[in-house]
């Protein structure tokens, strides 16, 4: 009976999170009480992160650990997203490192993507590029796209060209996708050059 209840409660919790009804999600989360499992925690952490409640997401993670629930790879996506949304670079670095050193969770594409996005938004473009270079798997178009977007915003034409070329290679598996990518690339690169020339 307990397993059916937690399954139903988690489904309702996830529904509220996806609809952006965080207060309602909190109520369900608290009602679950001692029956909360990792899915419950992950849904709430992710929901808080996505909807800008970054500090609350990190606090909830600490509570989760305090109650004896160990995180998984999904948990860390939510935590890194929270750090990205809140611009907490130092905290994000610590969380990314602890994932491996404390919980022996091997980084996946999603985790690397979050780190590239976090560092890129903060203007730490060279470090974001170094994260990509350190990856144990091949970066995908999402990761190169995140770096390209950050380079465009911060006006780093040199790294933008590297990111754009790598993104082109990722997308070249589909001719139609590649063709549609060119206007976006040219627009982003032009924006970067304008920012650089204006000294921003």
From TrEMBL:
Keywords for this protein: Repeat
Which GO terms of the molecular function aspect are on file? Answer: RNA binding
Q: Is this entry keyworded Repeat?
A: yes
InterPro entries, sorted: PPR_At4g14850-like_plant, PPR_rpt, TPR-like_helical_dom_sf
State the name under which the record lists this protein.
Pentatricopeptide repeat-containing protein
A single BP term in Gene Ontology: RNA modification
Q: Which PROSITE patterns match?
A: PPR
Q: Where are the PPR repeats?
A: 37-71
């Amino acid at each position: 009976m307990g397993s059916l209840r937690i399954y139903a409660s988690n489904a309702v919790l996830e529904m509220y999170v996806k609809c952006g009804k965080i207060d309602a999600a909190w109520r369900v989360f608290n009602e679950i009480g001692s029956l909360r499992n990792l899915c419950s925690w992950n849904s709430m952490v992710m929901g808080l992160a996505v909807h800008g409640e970054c500090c609350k997401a990190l606090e909830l993670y600490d509570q989760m650990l305090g109650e004896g629930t160990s995180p998984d790879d999904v948990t860390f996506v939510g935590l890194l997203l929270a750090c990205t949304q809140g611009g907490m670079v130092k905290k994000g670095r610590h969380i990314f490192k602890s994932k491996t050193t404390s919980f022996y969770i091997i980084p996946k594409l999603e985790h690397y993507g979050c780190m590239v996005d976090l560092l890129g938004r903060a203007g730490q473009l060279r470090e974001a590029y170094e994260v990509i270079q350190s990856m144990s798997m091949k970066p995908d178009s999402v990761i190169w796209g995140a770096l390209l977007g950050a380079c465009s915003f911060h006006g780093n034409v040199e790294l933008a060209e590297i990111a754009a070329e790598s993104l082109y290679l990722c997308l070249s598996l589909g001719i139609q996708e590649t063709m549609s990518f060119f206007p976006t690339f040219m627009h982003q690169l032009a924006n970067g050059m304008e920012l650089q020339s204006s000294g921003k």
